[in-house]
Amino acid sequence: MDPTDDGDELGEDGTDGADADEEGEDDSTEDEGEEESGGEAQTFVVEIENVSPSTGHLLSGTTAVPEGADEPGPLLPGSTYVVDFHAGPGHAISFAHMFVPSNDLFYGPDSDGIALYDAEGNPRSGDVTDEVLLWDAGTEANEEPGAGPNQVLNQGDADTGPADPDTSVRLASDDFGNLPEVSDVLSVELIAHGDSMFSLRLTNVSTGTTLTSSEGDSPVPVAPGVWAVHGEGEAPLFMEGQPDAGDGLEALAEDGAIDGLAAALAERTALVGPLAPGVWVVHGEQPALFEVGEADLGQGLEALAEDGDPSGLEASLLDAGYAAGAYAVPEGADGPGPLFSGARYSFTVEAAPGDHLSFANMLVQSNDLFYGLDAAGLALFSEDGAPISGDLTAQIQLWDAGTEVNQFPGAGLDQAPRQSGPNTGADEGGVVMVVDDGYAYPAVSDVVRVTITPQ
């Protein structure tokens, strides 16, 4: 790594790192740049903004194909729906499945969902049927379960019954005296597999005599449903005592139609989390932070990418004679902290023609991923010596430092928000590369926006 100046820091780093060069002494970066192009040193302001959603579900989807079946269908006696998913401490799962012989009843946990970890942070596993309830969506007037002419098995068209005078989502009331207990229809099991992996199994245990109505005895089919893994207390499907939000729960509860609610959940499903404080460096044509396809240089990128700690990398760059600094204080904040949705970091650098800029910010909901430019950085001047300006987001990539084995984003137990301490995940022994680990990540432009402005 060849430094491109004499060690004086040329910009403010926003933290308690080395101060910018207040005296304005010449350094080799400015001298060399002016000798090569005759250009003057230029000050640039760089802004890094978190544009990700402020809230979002970790995962969501539909449950429509019974275990062992080849196509979607209702859950009949003896059959099982299975949901496989990842989740971390603080997450819960919610779901909704129509009680078919009804006007608008559905099975699901309360509006907060089923907590997936106990108070000590241990993954839960076992029978959770007692946390599943039968709900009334409050969208269609109730008729005798199993005998109503406006129920999905008897009606001619969807959405044909009269409106319910009580529009609130509430626990189902046994007005006709024939609603079976939840445990007589469903058995619900939560299975923890380790490494943030879970399965939820819903089995129909009803028999030919579970539901007794004026039309005779029958089992209770359960329609396909939707599910979401979310933060505790988020209530992704409904709020008890409030009217249906109009996102598709009505169609699910009245007709077993899941596409509308599934689409609404998908729109609210996103990897949500802050960006960590970062490091910037002004350098020549040679990379300063990493080499693509090579192991981490061992100068502090690992701590930045795994734990959001920029101090070691900043110190290494300054010791090597680079103009560099850390940025850690969001605009308007009183002190250092992570960058949440809608907030931004800002830092100032000074450079001359021939100089390049590199920077790195950890994606906090990861093991060792960071946002940054290509290894060669960004040339701060055009070929004719004009300072660059504008939106740099299209040039930003999500990099994998190759230092820690990746886990499911937003749920891995060795990721910074959930790990017991820094540097606790399994060593990967890999190389720095654009992330390609088989997991899904949001587009860079959905998380971060970077602009540069010459002053």
Automatic annotation (TrEMBL):
Residues 53-63 have a biased composition (Polar residues). Residues 1-44, 53-72, 140-175, 408-429 are annotated as: Disordered. It comes from the Bacteria. Residues 1-38 have a biased composition (Acidic residues). This is Spondin domain-containing protein.
